[in-house]
Amino acid sequence: MFVSSKNVDPLSRLLSLYPLRTALDIRCHFGAPWILDQPAVAPGIAPYHLILKGTAWLDSGGQKDIALQEGDIIVFPKGSAHSLHTDDAGSGATPVRELPGEQVVQLKGNDGTGSITDILCGQFVFDRGTSSVLLAALPEFILVRTAGRPDFAGLQALIAMLRVETEAMRPGASVVVSQLSSALFALLIRAWLEQAASMPGLFSLLAERRLQPVLHGILEAPEKSWSLSDMAAACHMSRATFARLFRRIAGDTPAAILMQTRMAQAASWLVQGERTVGEIGEAVGYQSEAAFNRVFKRWFGVGPGQYRRSARANS
Q1: What is the spatial distance between Cα 258 and Cα 271, in angstroms, rounded to a whole number?
Q2: Are 269 and 280 in contact (CB under 8 A)?
Q3: Pairing of strands 82-85, 35-38
C-alpha cells in the first residue's frame, strides 16, 4: 500500500528520494601556520568541514583565498580537491599528525604556535546511481555562513552539539554524533537555499514560485500521466510560456525532470524492499512491468531486481 503524505513540503520530499550515509570522523585542532590538503575523491562522496573556532582560507579549483570564519560550513558535492590553510602557511606550515587518546572521532593536530583553528571534518556518501541527478544540480562547493544569522538557529545548535559530543568520550556519544550528522545535510541545504542568490537545476524549481505547483505535483504523484498541457495548467500558464520558463530555470525539459524523479523514487522504493517490482513500476507511471524494467535498466544499467539485490548486499 502506498501512503500519500500531502503535508510533506517539496524540499523534504525531494531530499527523501536521495538517501545518503554520513560520517563525521575527524576533528582538527591546528595552531598557525598550517595547511590541510584534501585530494579529489570518488563520485558520490562529498567531503565537508565545519569551522568550530578560528579562521582559515579556502582554495578550490580556480578560486583562491576564500575567507572562512567560525560557524562556516563547506561541502564539496562533486568531491573536488581543495585546500584549507592559514594566510601565513607557505613553506612554514607544520606537519599534520594524529593525536593520541580515545575519542569519538580521530584527532589531528600540529606543532604550530599561532592562533588556533578548530575544524570538524566528515563526508556525505550518496548512492551513485540514484543521486547523480541531485549532485549534478549542486555547485562545486557550497559555503553556508551561520554567524550572525538568527534564522539559522537550528543549524547553529546542531554545530554546537557536535562540538560538545566530539570533545570527550561520553556514553552514547558515537550514536549521538551519527544521528546529528545525519540531520546536517538537510539543514545545510535548507540554509543554502535561503542564503544563495541563485539556484541551479532541480533546486531552482524550489526557488521559482511560478513553477512550484508542478514540482510539488510531480513529487506528490509521479504515477500521473503528466502531459505538457497538464504541467502548464498546474502553473496557470500556456504550454509555450511554461516550457520556455521551465527550461530556462531548470536547465532541462519538464519531461526529463519527470523521468529523473520517477527513477529516483523507484530506486528508493526498491531499496526499501517493501513492494514488488510491478507495484513500484505502476506507482511511478508504468502500466506494465516490462515497460518499467526497460526504462529502469536504460537509466541505471541494471534491471530493478538486480538493483534491489545489489542494494541489499551493500547494506
Answers
A1: 20
A2: yes
A3: antiparallel
